[in-house]
Design brief:
By secondary structure, this protein is α/β, with parallel strands linked by helices. It is 37% helix and 17% strand. The protein has helices spanning 9-16, 75-85, 92-104, 116-131, 146-160, 164-175, 177-184, 239-247, 268-283, and strands at residues 2-5, 21-24, 27-28, 31-32, 38-40, 67-70, 143-144, 185-189, 192-197, 215-220, 225-230, 252-253, 257-259. A six-stranded mixed beta sheet has the order 8-9-10-11-13-12.
């Protein structure tokens, strides 16, 4: 079984054509690339579907699938890849935590009611992911990521079995979040935080001095993409609608967290455009709405 990834839906669909295939979060805004055997997708119009990482293990050795198509790699996607391989670790509470954070955002970890060991597993994964960051080719070309997926599945199995080296790396990752807050912070205005970093920062809703924001718009310089997220729901405000207003239908995600189109290079000018656009939205909130700055 091969795992193929592309930030371009046409490239991925062409590669899967005629094969016994599954797709996992092969979503590009509202568009999805279907697998011939199964499709796991839960963004946009499919948001009522369960997170792919909650899928049960397929029997090991099953030969029904020849190829699995992906648009990106994150914990939710990787958990589903492990399930397709029949190797997803049996730690249901951890996968419920992963699913909760995929939908609501990593900043909601305190509300997830996770056990200490599952939190250590989460941060262990995040530490490994940060050190082994994978980004799709920016031109949308197809890439065989089988080795990357198998490496990630190995890490999931080690975390589930209590690998102390990985768990300790997660402890150090968590301790480093304060420095990441400082180094990534650009400005806070009307409740909207702007951030720039090689790392994911949409879980950081307070400034280095402790002021709380309602939204984060962040440029990740490693992947050259932008993510918009809300700390809590705001009536009439949707991260997914914002990114699609800015960059079209191939941008997408959820109301609480969404991103620029896969494979489209974003820079500082795009960040500032998004930040100012969101500030205008916040300015227009009616008195009494969450986040009103009247």
């Amino acid at each position: 079984m091969k795992f193929l990834l592309s930030s371009n839906p046409t490239q991925l669909a062409t590669a899967l054509s005629g094969l016994q295939s599954a797709t996992i979060e092969a979503e590009y805004g509202d568009e999805v690339v279907e697998g011939s055997v199964m499709t796991m997708a839960h963004h946009g119009p499919r948001q009522a579907n369960p997170c792919p990482c909650l899928a049960p293990n397929r029997p090991q050795g099953s030969r029904e699938l020849e190829v699995v198509g992906l648009s990106h790699l994150d914990l939710d996607t990787l958990g589903a890849c492990a399930a397709v391989l029949g190797r997803k670790p049996d730690c249901a509470d951890f996968w419920r935590l992963a699913a909760y954070l995929d939908i609501h955002g990593p900043h909601k970890v305190a509300q997830a009611q996770a056990s200490p060991i599952d939190l250590r597993r989460l941060y262990g994964y995040l530490a490994w992911s940060q050190a082994n960051r994978y980004s799709p080719p920016r031109d949308g070309s197809l890439e065989d990521v089988t080795a990357v997926v198998l490496s990630g599945v190995d890490v999931l199995e080690r975390l589930a079995s209590g690998d102390e080296e990985l768990l300790a790396a997660g402890d150090a990752f968590l301790a480093g979040q304060e420095e990441l807050n400082r180094s990534s912070f650009v400005e806070l205005k009307n409740g909207v935080l702007a951030r720039v970093s090689p790392f994911f920062t949409n879980s950081l809703y307070s400034t280095p001095t402790g002021e709380l924001g309602l939204m984060v718009v962040a440029l990740r310089t490693g992947a050259m993409n932008i993510t918009v997220s809300l700390a809590d729901p705001i009536p009439g405000v949707s991260a997914r609608s914002i990114v699609q207003d800015l960059w079209g239908a191939e941008a997408g995600g959820h109301d609480g967290i969404a991103g620029s189109p896969r494979g489209q290079v974003m820079g500082l000018a795009d960040l500032m455009r998004a930040w100012n656009y969101i500030i205008d939205i916040m300015d227009g909130l009616k008195p009494g709405q969450v986040g009103s700055w009247e």
